[in-house]
Design brief:
The protein has about 450 residues and is of the alpha/beta class. It is built from 18 helices and 13 strands. Strand 2 and strand 3 form a beta hairpin. Helix 1 packs antiparallel against helix 2, helix 4 packs across helix 5 and helix 17 packs across helix 18.
């Protein structure tokens, strides 16, 4: 008998993420969704299963280790993943009954392995708790780092780093926020419509959205189906984008008639936002080192019908272009630790060593951006993280070399202003991703 199709598909996604190939979660999920014909309800449950299991991986292992007779890392990966997915369902999926969780997991183990391992899965899962308050955690008053590691499934090195940088309470809040599900936010394409028009059109399509985001042209989705399948998305009336990731383009303030460079443009969200802010009147170069990802930029430009954008394949650390730009955006590749709500697999992927390497590349990118900007022009540096290595240390080293000064952006961004020219959003202080941004004025 075939296994239940949604859980079977979820297992495919998770095995690609957890095995040595370590495929990114969103890439793995997209690959499976393209192959499987699932109902809209099935697609939503699939997303919940895979994101929840990755998000709560350490907690699931902590629970399982109390009921397994052998170390978890000695189990076949497929069995360990079935067990992790089952514990996630038991603790976080109200719509799944305990007997249904056990039954479907055992069927999955039979389908993927053999009867002996399926009996082991059955024996373990019949004992696992059904509520978080049935689990005995380390005492947070005595062992805060250990408690956060298990309760919120965070790597201990990252918890220690946040405790050193922000203090115990903020580190705790960051761990809690990183395990939450992010709101769906959309950016209105002002070249095609207005907030009011889009709210009305979405409402007529069964999507409930609210104009309660403190940024121009952003709406929060409260209730609705698959937004990318709506005709308003397909016709380019909006772009799905976290609120914090709209800050870089707003801080750069592009204007009609200017030459603007987006140095790390893929997948094109900020590039098209720049075009909208310049009312379609700027000449924008969208550059990225990945030829494959540039196709995504082109796809978004075509869907949103944003004018004035030229696409260039090139590495910002050794750019193939010359000339002076009025404004340059460096949305640099980074650890992404401010986006763990949307990309929970990053916490299992990143290390201190990878952060140090990214910081070196970020300094090179920023120096390159300064070189391509005209005198008195503006450069904005942004990353979706808040490690000191990728933020203040990069800024300080570039400032020490001279040629640029810090300046503040528009007043409506003051809520996130933390120092002259510097802005930061934290997931712990609102339903936003964590971003760090700096605005420079070239003076040479």
């Amino acid at each position: 008998m075939p296994a239940e199709p949604v859980r079977d598909a979820a297992l495919d996604v998770l095995l690609r993420v957890f095995d040595e190939r370590a495929v990114y979660l969103d890439v793995s999920l997209d690959k499976t969704q393209r192959r499987k014909k699932l109902s809209e309800r099935g697609r939503r449950f699939l997303g919940m299963l895979v994101y929840g299991t990755v998000r709560h991986k350490t907690l699931c292992d902590f629970v399982l280790q109390q009921y397994c007779h052998q170390p978890l890392d000695e189990l076949p990966l497929v069995i360990r993943t079935i067990l992790q997915m089952a514990v996630f369902q038991s603790l976080f999926c109200d719509q799944v009954t305990h007997p249904a969780m056990v039954h479907t997991s055992v069927d999955l183990a039979k389908h993927r392995t053999h009867a002996g391992l399926a009996r082991m899965v059955n024996a373990v899962l019949r004992k696992v708790p059904q509520r978080l308050d049935e689990i005995t955690f380390p005492d947070p008053e005595k062992e805060l780092a250990k408690y956060l590691k298990i309760r919120h499934s965070m790597p201990k090195w990252l918890i220690r780093k946040w405790m050193d940088q922000f203090g115990d309470e903020t580190a705790r809040a960051l761990c809690e926020a990183s395990c939450e599900t992010a709101d769906s936010i959309l950016r209105v394409n002002t070249l095609k419509t207005t907030k009011a028009e889009l709210l009305e059109r979405l409402g007529n399509s069964g999507v409930v959205a609210a104009d309660d985001v403190p940024l121009p042209d952003a709406l929060r989705v409260i209730q609705g189906g698959a937004l990318p399948r709506t005709k308003w998305f397909q016709q380019g009336h909006f772009f799905l984008q976290d609120t914090a990731s709209m800050l870089p383009a707003l801080l750069l303030e592009p204007r009609p008639g200017e030459r603007v460079l987006d140095m790390c443009a893929a997948p094109g969200g900020k590039t098209t936002h720049l075009a909208e802010l310049a009312e379609g009147g700027a000449h924008i170069i969208a550059m990225d080192a990945s030829r494959t990802r540039l196709w995504k930029v082109l796809e978004n430009i075509e869907r949103l019908e944003t004018p004035g954008i030229s696409v260039v394949c090139g590495d910002g650390m050794n750019p193939p272009i010359r000339g002076e730009f009025d404004r340059v955006l460096v949305d640099a590749p980074c650890s992404g630790l401010g986006t763990l709500r949307r990309h929970p697999d990053l916490k299992w992927r990143m290390t201190q060593e990878s952060i140090d390497e990214m910081a070196r590349n970020q300094r090179t990118l920023l120096r390159s951006a300064i070189g391509l900007c005209k005198n008195n022009g503006i450069i904005v540096y942004s990353v979706c993280t808040f490690t000191p290595e990728e933020t203040t240390t990069v800024i300080e080293s570039v400032l020490a070399e001279g040629g640029v000064t810090l300046e503040n952006g528009p007043e409506y961004l003051n809520t996130w202003n933390i120092a002259q020219g510097m802005y930061q959003s934290l997931p712990s202080s609102g339903a936003w991703d964590g971003f760090f941004l700096t605005r420079f004025r070239k003076q040479s």
